[in-house]
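Q: I have 219 residues here and want to know how they pack in 3D. Can you give me a structure?
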Amino acid sequence: MGEHAALLTEIEAEFRATAHWTGRAILSPPVAAALSKVPREAFVTPGSERAAYENRPLPIGHGQTISQPFIVALMTELLDLQANDTVLEVGTGSGYQAAVLAEIAGRVCSIEVIPELAARAATALAAQGYSNIELRTGDGGLGWSERAPFDAIIVTAAAADLPPALLEQLGPGGRMVIPVGPVHGEQELLLITKDAAGAVTRRSILPVAFVPLTGRGHD
């Protein structure tokens, strides 16, 4: 079994093990196909390629990480993406999560606060030929009002609480997945849904550990 296939098998096993928390026992075909297609080694820092298919986060510089593949899979799964959806990603990082989203959704708008990471992600995504990803450097907690409303929002760093701008920019019927909690304390992965009338509900999925969301938009 190749490294890519072995990682998928490991992710599927972790889905089964955490299903009592997440409500997701299996990978859906679109998410499994996206994980199978996107080469994680293209998004890690030089020298880390041999670790690309280990089911763990890896440092990408500037105090940031490329998320654990299981967490990428779970967060993507929780969004229940459709082919014509527009997704906002807060925290481009390496660009790997954006690539996975772009395999499923119609359009991905991704924001990164660290210019060097944004530039590196843009290069990696362009090398993979993605044309449905729009990148921006800035404070992700403020969202991207010019592209709102979004069918789905994914936040890849922990906020102290739900950023008001992101809630506002989530469209009716939309889903947002975001880790919330203190930097060195207990964090939880939340699934936020907004119904057709604009009422918001939140559900705790499972405990997580993410780097902090930086910028003013979440204060």
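Q: Anything worth noting?
A: The chain is about 30% helix and 25% strand. The mean pLDDT is 93.
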